UniProtKB/TrEMBL annotation:
Top EC group: oxidoreductase
Signal peptide: none
Cofactor: FAD
Residues binding FAD: 135, 163, 187-189, 226-227
Pathway: Amino-acid degradation; L-proline degradation into L-glutamate; L-glutamate from L-proline: step 1/2
Top-rank taxon, per record: Bacteria
Enzyme Commission designation: 1.5.5.2
Binding, substrate: 100, 288-289
GO biological process terms on file: L-proline catabolic process to L-glutamate
Manner of cofactor binding, per the entry note: Binds 1 FAD per subunit.
Protein name (database record): proline dehydrogenase
């Protein structure tokens, strides 16, 4: 493993570093580059700024792997409050929410996660927006797709996420490419064994293109989540090939990553959705983003070393 990556991942487990990063003024800017804030109102403010720039948004209340019913309930309440505030601010036409089933109790009981996700979907419907279920590690894929299927009986607009690194994903794309089906395609963010996932980056990219073709060929609404300029170029070309007009698919990128590219695509008439994470549990998310890319790591270390 890249030594900087290893260092950042080691720092991820360190509470002293968490306090330093969270309170030092310069470091706080580092946090703010990737995370909208800790409170609902900060998340709504960040949403409002992006929407004013012609972007759309999906919001993630940070918190995963809940093994506690009360914590799952805190997550549900946070989403309900967020949806309410987005609606009051007139933003729910441009902003939806992304939910991790593990944060609403999947590890405890799939039924609990389904019930909790249903409450979020019902609130989203009332506010005139949608929900996408984030995808987590491969041990949860079947369960997440089962819950998705149940939710879609009442709310057919619930979005799925499929990860191109999984060998099964082309089949899942075929399964979920029907009319009205919202599917986010990403490379995949978890460390997965070779038995289930492609390991070489070029194999993942090839799988991404195969899956993108399948989704574009289908009748659903594909959401291409990637910062990879090569893939963005290929999708642009394939969308034309499949006679897809802008607005019948969208691009998605993370908050703070390639913001100029987000604007460029939006100004070219594409729908671009920015994934905004917020909430008190930002530390693990931030560390994963920093570990992903040496340039981010150097930026982080410079900010940490700064006295200001
Ligand atoms: C909106 C969204 C939602 C996601 N949801 C999920 C999910 O539910 N489940 C899941 O497993 N994963 C999710 N992911 C994460 C995803 O799976 C990848 O781990 C992550 O997006 C990195 O892959 P990439 O396609 O951006 O390309 P990478 O392989 O990371 O990068 C490819 C190229 O993109 C460019 N690039 C990348 N980062 C930067 C940067 N910071 N600055 C400038 N250029 C950069 C560089 O040219 C780089 O070579 C999501 C990602 C996004 C954008």
């Amino acid at each position: 493993m890249n030594p900087l990556r290893a260092l950042i991942l080691a720092a991820a487990g360190n509470n002293g570093i968490r306090r330093l990063v969270g309170t030092a003024p310069v470091s706080r800017d580092v946090v703010r580059r990737f995370v909208a804030g800790e409170s609902t109102s900060e998340a709504v403010t960040a949403t409002s700024a992006l929407v004013a720039d012609g972007l759309t948004v999906t919001l993630d209340y940070l918190g995963e792997d809940t093994t506690d019913r009360e914590l799952a309930e805190v997550t549900v309440q946070s989403y309900l409050e967020l949806l309410d505030q987005l609606h009051s601010a007139g933003l729910s036409g441009s902003a939806e929410v992304s939910v991790k089933l593990s944060a609403v109790g999947q590890a405890l009981d799939e039924r609990l996660a389904l019930d909790n996700a249903s409450r979020i979907c019902a609130a989203a419907e009332q506010c005139g927006t949608t929900v996408t279920l984030d995808m987590e590690d491969h041990t949860t894929t079947d369960s997440t797709l089962r819950v998705l299927g149940e939710l879609r009986r009442s709310w057919p607009w619930v979005g799925a996420v499929l990860q191109a690194y999984l060998r099964r994903t082309l089949d899942d794309c075929r399964e979920l490419a029907g009319a009205g089906s919202r599917v986010r395609l990403c490379k995949g963010a978890y460390k997965e064994p070779e038995s289930v996932a492609y390991q070489a980056p070029h194999e993942v990219d090839l799988s991404y293109v195969r899956c993108a073709n399948t989704l574009l060929q289908g009748d659903g609404y594909p959401m291409f989540a990637t910062h990879d300029p090569r893939l963005v170029g290929i999708i642009d070309e394939r969308a034309r090939w499949h006679d897809r007009k802008p607005g019948t698919y969208e691009y998605q990128m993370l908050y703070g990553i390639r913001p100029e590219e987000q604007l460029r695509l939006a100004q070219a008439g594409e729908t671009v959705r920015v994934y905004i994470p917020y909430g008190q549990e930002w530390y693990g998310y931030l560390m994963r983003r920093l570990a992903e890319r040496p340039a981010n790591t150097a930026f982080f270390l410079r900010a940490l070393a700064s006295k200001r």
